[in-house]
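TASK: fixed-backbone design
INPUT:
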């Protein structure tokens, strides 16, 4: 094999490469050149799920739950989660109600998620996305109407918003644009009916905390372990919150006087008491 001076054997080159440290992102992730970005994979999954629900009866322009059976099976419904269908906290992140709903979420995911993935690396970015989405779903489950059906990537996207703010602030960069984007979207969340502000706020909080944990870990041989431990702690806290919310919902099912809530509890197999 030709080299800058003379020749080298392939085995020598391979052995030499073992001693070269792989390039890292600013927060410890492996710097990947080429390949498929996690952001685009997430967008692809969301788009495929939307197409499937659209052809399954929900339609493209629907602003409600439509008639797709996918919403009944995979969307976030507090009573169903409390009865043991915890997977809905994840599957609901990939369902959307209408073209405008998914269009905004995917635009925000592309614009904010792309630079975040470059700064964090793929694994940290994916952990941030899912922890934020689950956090948003849990707050929606804990504080929202028990008979409400919710879905969307908004919780995860708001988590990316919060993470982007934390990282840009810690780096001493201009935070005005992201603060404005967060503020505008929070105003929309609290102003318009049909928008689950709880999912947005929950995702924003969890995403900010995860990003702070990533950024606070100092560079060094133990940074990866510290960041992983922080994610585990956050996940445990989220799990505890979920079990607490489930216990509250089960208690409410036994004492509620709302017919719609009783019906939701009954469909979920939870014990009900209605006079």
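OUTPUT:
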């Amino acid at each position: 094999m030709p080299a800058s001076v003379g020749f080298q054997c392939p085995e020598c080159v391979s052995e030499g490469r073992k001693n070269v440290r792989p390039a890292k992102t600013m927060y410890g992730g492996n710097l990947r050149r080429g390949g498929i970005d996690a952001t685009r994979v997430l967008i692809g999954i969301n788009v495929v799920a939307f197409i499937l629900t659209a052809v399954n009866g929900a339609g493209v322009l629907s602003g409600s739950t439509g008639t797709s059976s996918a919403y009944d099976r995979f969307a976030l419904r507090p009573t169903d989660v409390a009865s043991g269908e915890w997977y809905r906290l994840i599957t609901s992140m990939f369902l959307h109600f209408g073209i405008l709903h998914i269009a905004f979420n995917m635009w925000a995911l592309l614009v904010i998620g792309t630079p975040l993935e470059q700064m964090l690396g793929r694994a940290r970015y994916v952990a941030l996305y899912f922890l934020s989405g689950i956090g948003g779903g849990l707050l929606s489950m804990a504080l929202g109407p028990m008979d409400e059906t919710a879905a969307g990537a908004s919780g995860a996207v708001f988590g990316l918003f919060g993470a982007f703010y934390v990282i840009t602030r810690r780096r001493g960069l201009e935070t005005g644009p992201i603060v404005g984007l967060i503020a505008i979207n929070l105003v929309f969340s609290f102003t318009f009916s049909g928008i689950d502000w709880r999912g947005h706020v929950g995702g924003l909080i969890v995403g900010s905390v995860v990003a702070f944990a990533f950024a606070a870990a100092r560079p060094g041989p133990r940074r990866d372990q510290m960041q992983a431990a922080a994610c585990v702690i956050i996940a445990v806290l989220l799990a505890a919150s979920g079990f607490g919310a489930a216990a509250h919902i089960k208690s409410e099912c036994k004492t509620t006087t709302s017919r719609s809530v009783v019906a939701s509890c009954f469909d979920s197999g939870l014990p009900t008491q209605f006079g």
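COMMENT: The CA atoms of residues 142 and 245 lie 5 Å apart.
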